[in-house]
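The pair is quoted verbatim below.
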Amino acid sequence: MALNVPVGCARLRASAPVRVRPIVAASANESPPRADVVDWVAATSSFFEKESRPIMLYDGVCNLCNGGVRFVRNNDRNRRIRFEALQSDAGKKLLRRSGRAPDDISSVVLVEKERSYIKSEAVLKIMEYIDLPFPQLAFFLRFIRDFAYDNVANNRYSLFGQSESCEI
């Protein structure tokens, strides 16, 4: 069935009154918090109580990632960065703290007490911590850096292989 509307302004009229249900927004004070919701920042705050250094999360079975960890470790003269495999229990908790799924091993993550960085932002921040002068990478727009990062990350096992277990 086709509806013919003449060119120009058409006036629409409802044949019966329309009831609109009001949208009621629930206040945080109206219901108790759900028992299954975890505040991951609070749950992982112990990682930063005695130690304020950021934590680099990496894929523990990826040869490229392990090489990256060795590179950072060898160039971090002041030992500013800690390391944790994404696959470990601590790594999974810190992933959740960073707003990522606990089984997401697609990116290096740098977790600071107040903030987390992923993909190329994490790489740039790690270089900043270990005082490596690679400012030319920052000139590329983030989506271009992340595009290149994702292409390497998605093919890292086929390009660089993987090990049976985490080296560190």
About this structure: The first strand starts at residue 55 and ends at 58. Helices lie at 40-43, 63-75, 89-97, 119-129, 142-154, 156-160. The first helix runs from residue 40 to 43.
